Model the fold of this input.
Amino acid sequence: MQYRALVAVAAAAMLLAAASAQTAAEQPVLKGKDAFGSWRDDKPGTIRLIRPEDLPPPGATRSASNGSRIVKRPTEALPLVPPGFKIELFAQGLSGPRTIRIAPNGDIFVVESEVGRIRVFRAGDGAAKPSEQTIFAADLNYPFGLAFFPADDPKWLYVGNTDSVVRFAYHTGDVKASGAAETIVPNLPEGGHATRDIAFTRDGSRMLVSVGSGSNVGEGVGRPPGGLEAWSRQHALGAAWGYETDRAGVLSFDPNGKQKAVFATGIRNCVALVIQPQSGEPWCATNERDGLGDDLVPDYVTRVREGAFYGWPWFYLGAHEDPRQAGQRPDLKDKITVPDVLLQSHSAPLGLAFYEGGNFPAEYRGDGFVASHGSWNRAKRTGYKVVRIRMKDGVPTGEYQDFVTGFVLDDRDVWGRPVGVAVAHDGALLISEDANGTIWRVTHE
Done:
């Protein structure tokens, strides 16, 4: 009975969203309070613009604990896409698929973090299903990030474990590791936020590694050794200390894991770290802090400037002081870089890719796609979707657009939690979701 009810709900949601999507192009941009919304407002084509001046005060609503219940995907339930696009089930039966990266020859590498495994799918251009799959490597320690290096003719596949960066010898076409992993960064901070993504600068001279915070908002970190003035002189702008040392930001190494440096700070949890193809700039998809209410603090995607400080844990989105850190760092108030694109609070963006394929319409080229895993710290659920980051001449406009929705069945139940996004060689957009262990393929008809 419960299963039939879920099917009915999913079917009704599909019909409603499909009808609404037909008029998506005519919809105005949702701004201010209207932009926050919930899953009930989500539909392909909806555009939002959230600005720092739109934020409510801390505690405007109570901080909610509202985790979703994962259910089996109803047979008739499909993710929803804009008119003119098609979505198909590419693969299923995976164990929590997360990051997706495309090898230079088109092979599709998928990380299964919880089981410590990297899987490879091979599919010809235009193929709706993989022709073969192989386990490339196993027995890893909560892997997440993947990077092929050098980019054009890779000799290595780099993997971001939760506590280290390792690399496997790789030659184009390899579907199984030919030898053991080599550890090149042995001691990344452990605990707290566990994902570690990797990206190489366009010139190949530096390896960037994202490391999330060990806490929500630096609770109990205390005062820096030697005093604040001495610490500030000797460390990067906004760098935290104690158990948060070398966390909540992006680190830099050479390709052999040497010459460690801090690239950027104050980014609570940069889950996805990628290089924008057009500009060569690094970007982060960031999970912001919890506990300040339904609409604080917006998650974000942004360009990451070297030497910049993005506010965590003392401030958020400019000079908005976190009340839990009141008066701790007045010296930083005017030194904060504001992120480029603010997302609905607690959306939990985990994946980011820029579209450089040839299948989608021309206006999509260069835009970003972000996979949001979905909220728990919000009374009205949000996230659980893939959105399009709108760009103009390679620069973010601040607006984003719902692109794939339909993973939420009702106020309690969801069947899909998007994580990874990648653009296949044939221009299809691939999306992983780790609730039911599936990968989806979006194409333009």
Remarks:
- The domain at 2-444 is CATH 2.120.10.30 (Neuraminidase).
